[in-house]
Amino acid sequence: MHISSITLLHFLFLGMILKETTMANSMSFLMLLSLLAFIPLCLCRTEGSLYPQYYDKSCPKVEQIVKSVLARVVAKEPRMAASLLRLHFLDCFVKGCDGSLFLDSDSSRSIISEKESIPNRNSARGFEVIDEIKTALEKECPHTVSCADISALAARDSVVLAGGPSWKVALGRRDSLNASLSESNKNIPDPNSKFHTILTKFKLQGFEMVDQVALAGSHTIGYSRCISFNQRLYNHSGKGEPDPTLDKHYAAELRTKCPRSGGDKNLSPLDFVTPSKFDNSYYKNLMADNGLLNSDQILFTMNKESAEMVKLFAHSNDIWFEQFTKSMIKLGNLSPLTGSKGEIRKNCRKINT
């Protein structure tokens, strides 16, 4: 709990009095104790803060409802766990964790959806699951739980359902009244970007290199389209040759799924060893030159510090889980709208009328 600055000053003032007051003077001591009754000790959370118990009174079943929907969805389609985890990342990296990603385009309100950005178009998925959770929560506790909070909870629970770690999700985010197509195009790391470019994008969000490497491990689950890594198979660095940091046998296998022309939408698992299990085999793959995306493999080949982190996470699943949860909490705290800012959308796809 947060203690207000005014309350802290009260305690400091009392400390000064106590220093001058001794137990020998019982009358003075009793008078001092009586003063305590008139000091408003504010042990409440300040307005605008996020905390796990935010919906305890207004919507106590929120986490139960989110988990129930996700358990059914992921059991039917395991790939959806990775998709929902990615949605949280895509939302938070643009204007903060404010649900702006979920807005559809609306010309009457000059809203151009972030779903139409280059990183998201024909790639980001799982929006219908967020809609399903929102519908269930609106029935249970109308106009209470934000889409931004739904996304944060869905990301955590998706990781858990895939066999990964859990963490306390701080809640209390509100939803944005607009979206930013330009920031989505600018802020989301590209799978073919250079190491320094990706690191810079993470640092602009307040992350350190260890966060970048730990969060990249989310690619231990999910799939990627051929268009995202075809360059590594056929035209690395524009020289018409395969990427030398890609294992030759792995590259040959990928070429059977991703021809030189056509097949751009064909899918390949980001972690071919355990594609649906949240574990550290992703990092072991990087050490064997079996990273699918360029943005993955360069963590091991282009920077000594990040390479050491890859080795550490490959060695210990527990160490990676610990850092991953810290970095996910940090991600969820990126510039949320709280207090009276934004709104609680009734429909995640459009602002309230």
Summarize the model shown.
48% of the residues lie in helices and 2% in strands. The protein is mainly alpha-helical.
What does this structure look like?
The protein has 353 residues and is mainly α. Helices cover 48% and strands 2% of the residues. It has 15 helices and two strands. The protein has helices spanning 5-20, 26-36, 62-76, 79-92, 127-140, 147-161, 181-187, 195-204, 209-216, 230-234, 248-257, 281-287, 294-301, 304-315, 317-332; strands at 223-225, 267-269. A two-stranded antiparallel sheet has the order 1-2. It is globular and about 55 Å long.
Main beta sheet: strand number and arrangement? 2 strands, antiparallel
**Backbone shape:** globular
- Number of strand elements: 2
Structural class: mainly alpha
In terms of DSSP E residues, the strand content is under 5%
Strand line-up of the largest beta sheet: 1-2
- SS field, number of helical segments: 15
The end-to-end distance, rounded to whole angstroms, is 36 Å
What percentage of residues falls in helices of 4 or more residues?
40-55%
Order of helices and strands: HHHHHHHHHEHHEHHHH
Oligomeric organization of the protein chains: single chain
What would you report as the Rg, rounded to the nearest angstrom?
24 Å
**Which spans have pLDDT < 50 for at least 5 consecutive residues?**
1-47
Taking all residues together, what is the mean pLDDT? 89
